[in-house]
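Request: Have a read of the protein record below and say how the chain folds.
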Amino acid sequence: MDIEYSIYLGQEQKNGFTGFLAEKNFFCVVEIFDGYTGEQGEQLMSALAEIGNTNYESLISFDSSVSEILKRMNIPLDTSIAIGYKKSQTLYLKTIGSGEIYLNRGKMFERIIYGEINAAGRYEKDDFYVFTTSFFTQSLKGVVHTKALLHKHVSIREFPEQIKQTVGAEDDTGAVALFVKMTEHTETYVSEGPRISIGAQITGFIKQHIETVSTLEKRKKIIIGCVLILCMGLFGWNISKGIQNKGGLQIGQGQSYEEKKQKIEGTIEQAAAKTEAVSDGLQMLQEAKGTLAALQKTTSKDKQDEITSLQKKLKDAESTLIKREYKDPQEYYDFAIEEKNAKGSKLYIFEDKSFVLNPDGKVYILTLEKKSLLKIALPKKVSLDSLVAGYEKNSYILNPEEGILRVDEAGKGKVVIPKETQWSAISSMQVYNGNIYLLDGGNNALYKYAVTTDGYGDRVSYFKGSYADMDANSTFAIDISVYIANKDIVTKYTAGLRDDFKITIPGENITITKIITHTDQTELYLWDKKNGVMYIASRDGLYKKQIASSYFSQASDVEVYNNKAFLLKDAKLYSIDL
């Protein structure tokens, strides 16, 4: 059986993303408001297109595949999607966020699934489906317009233009509705929206969490006379019902504002109580975020204070689950007081001394307890890619053009390790017990240069067995053992051999910028610049808590001393209690 389809697209979004896919056996719409680029949307839709090229044996395998793709694409939370996959005489369906799917069969037009649902059922000739979101159906009254056109027996190709004329001057920015009809005809039609191409419209963001609802028996059914019995008998979908404020049952109209609000509040309360099952609680909050985002789009302005209150409750519940604290920094030291054009690019702490690299060719050594400053001039300027470390009374500067320079407190310097042709992308340097360690992400290597009476020995690999892959963004820290952070993974090595070690940090989109620990500390500190957070865990891998501040996103480097995080930003050093 063939299909015929057409697409309604609203005005193009400037900061969001709307897109669709329509193939012989696969249908999909995506709607994202704010914060998703066209390039991200193209990548997302390309990944979703894989579904149409895959043969699924069951609804479960279909649902798992969709979930895996969305997880792999690292999709945002405030996203709505509606998907259909045709296999033989069966149609697999899935909705996310405020996604909705409607069916017209015979004289019946019903919303068959919406929200976080999947379902399967047999389709028939002349079945008419609408893949859309609540923005189209509620804000633009798309259900009313669609029903009217079906009643007039308007051709499917005319639906987009007819609805656009009916909507008129209303703001339909970002709206999408894909109309699909099962037919034995071979003709396929896509209406052309003004100014909008498929590629340009593929903008969207989709939730990272998808719940599977496997059987219709698990959902409550309200049978309304013989009409609904007939519809369920013919197709086997669960059909949603709602009760209007006027009284009486109205088919397919969904829940009222108050019902949705109460559902969100209940979900938030249940999630906040999941302190012993954090992942389950976070999954529930993901669902609440999607429902709240959809509710916000269709709610009048006089309810915005209530929406804001729900958003705060949701944020507070999430902070409780993941043990997040929000803290403001304190200005600790201003290097510009001592030197007018002072600035800093890299920070390193040894005992109670902080070593700050000024790429103009200086190192500031600040004693943290006494706040006494020593300025050391380097032989010449270095680059923003240069690294700094400190050990006892010496500063160590890695200049990618020369090698490693050791400078004493009197300012006398010497290149102790000349630049090596084997170096590719040195991203992190540590000095431990006088030995120098360099992480070369470009070569997937960790080098050790052992200190000798005359200087330093030859480069050797720290590893003595198998080890995890690293890249140019990987960092490491040393205290007896070596801890290497790569994206959201931390591995631990002792005497060059990999330990059985794992850290599980609750939450999504974690990106470790730097891992920190010192001999006088009992914790591991993981700086996430992208999310503005410092994660704290024990050296055994037990997650403890996280500290959030916008300054963590603004800092050029971060270190830890005496249970305080020190953040380097331009010419200033800030501190945050941990």
In short: Residues 186-254 have pLDDT under 50 and may be disordered. Residues 259-322 form one domain.
